[in-house]
Amino acid sequence: MRVDGLPRRAIWLEPDGESVGIIDQTLLPHVFETRRLVTAAEAVHAIGTMQVRGAPLIGATAAYGLALALREDAGDAAMAQAAATLAATRPTAVNLAWALERMCRRLGPMASGERVAAAYAEAAAIVAEDVAANAAIGRHGMQLLRAAHSPGRPVRVLTHCNAGWLATCGWGTALAPIYMAHDAGIEVHVWVDETRPRNQGAALTAWELLQHGVPHAVVADNAGGHLMQRGQVDLVIVGADRVTATGDVANKIGTYLKALAAHDTGVPFYVAMPSSTIDWRLADGIAGIAIEERHASEVTVVQGRAADGRVVAVQVTPDGTPAANPAFDVTPARLVTALVTERGVCPASAAGLSRLFPEALERAAS
């Protein structure tokens, strides 16, 4: 994907072959800056403070974070401790645990002297596989947009939060079909939920779409149901932070409300995600997925650019008023029209997922 016309990814290995480059997403859309992660502690900080965010990108950052940790100490105890510290940064997105488990399976049998090079290679493989998976999601999802397109007007897509290339290692999940449809000449217009409390739709999705030249408009989170009632949404497509083996979907807070509105108005509701986001060991998302509770200041304070160009934080609540801040909600599988994966589109059900990924269910059962 491109920034000011130049190709970019959300994570990369720096020319020194050791440090890891990221985009500081806490500064977007007003400031574009990159950061170098040199230590595992810096990777932990980047994930915890949401300099990097989005389930696939969190997983890739954690994988590189483990490689950075092994440069300091490649012993068994140090590797286990580094993996545990990285795993504790964000509890909801399953890609984090998936990537760390994959890294430890690969590195565990090795001698400590072999681990550093192997860790970097495995982290690079995770990144490359995510890019390929998201490109495949884009191709499959583009057919849904093509089918929903009517001559003479754009296909109107509503999305929530940011599930574009900033949230992944390339292309994005929910935005990948939009980019590919746009590039293929299919007229697209995107309704971008602002996505309070962190405004990741207004700040990140809108910035991505603007960079790519995709027509869009930011709307208040509560406008989605109204737009659907008025026939102004052809389909909803969102990403996911965790999907159960039965098709329940954990995603940014507010996703459930969009699914309810879509169900009531007959608008198709799709969830796009790579198989690394599926928790094959979990059947009940509402009871089984830990929902991250983030700091109240994300609700009580907003960040934006003032008239003089400065980026400032402004409190929007009375002094002393408490705030709750659940970061995710769970959309039951019954409200999901279909899941869009790298292997195709399937019903949000155990049967649908097992048809596309039979080997994964066999591994989970063993």
Based on Cα principal axes, name the global outline.
globular
Fourth-tier CATH superfamily name of the largest domain: Translation initiation factor eif-2b, domain 2
User: What is the fold-level CATH name, i.e. the topology of the largest domain?
Assistant: Rossmann fold
Number of strands: 18
Strand content: 15-25%
Query: Please, how many domains?
Result: 2
Oligomer: single chain
Based on helices, strands and strand pairing, what is the structural class? alpha/beta
Question: Unreliable runs, pLDDT <50, ≥5 residues?
Answer: none
Sheet having the most strands: 7 strands, mixed
Q: Determine and state the CATH class of the largest domain.
A: Alpha Beta
Task: Walk across the major sheet and give the strand order.
Answer: 8-7-6-9-12-17-18
The CA-CA distance between the termini, in Å, is 39 Å
Number of helices: 13
Overall residue-averaged pLDDT value: 95
Q: Could you estimate the helical fraction of the residues in percent?
A: 40-55%
Can you give a write-up of this model?
The chain has 366 residues and is of the alpha/beta class. It folds into 2 domains: 2-129, translation initiation factor eif-2b, domain 1 (Four Helix Bundle (Hemerythrin (Met), subunit A), Up-down Bundle); 139-365, Translation initiation factor eif-2b, domain 2 (Rossmann fold). The protein has 13 helices and 18 strands. The strands form 5 sheets. Strands 8-7-6-9-12-17-18 form a 7-stranded mixed sheet, sandwiched between helices. Strands 13-10-11-16 form a 4-stranded mixed sheet, covered by helices on one side. A 3-stranded antiparallel sheet has the order 3-4-5, with helices on one face. It is globular and about 60 Å long. The two termini are 39 Å apart.
